[in-house]
Amino acid sequence: MATYADRVEKSVTHYEPGPLPEEVEDLGGYVVSELKRLGDIILNQAIFRLERTHVEPSKPRVGDVRYADGTNWNPSGGEGIYFYNGTSWVKL
Question: I need a surface site. Which of 41, 45, 58, 76 has the fewest CB within 10 A?
Fold first, then answer.
């Protein structure tokens, strides 16, 4: 799970399961923890929270939406929300 120093709120949009516990007795806590993480991801998707992006996606697809940081990745108009129209990033 990626973390960013400039993030004001913790938000996660990608999920990768954590390591399985070594003891069978710890499996219940593991499942509850993983379900909470999945719930946070679903909430972030439902309210459409975008994380600040520092690099241009390597293979953008038409309709992709990203929040560019404007410094490390500046598509054209500084920090802001951009969508990919098939040829370039357009600031919203």
Answer: 58
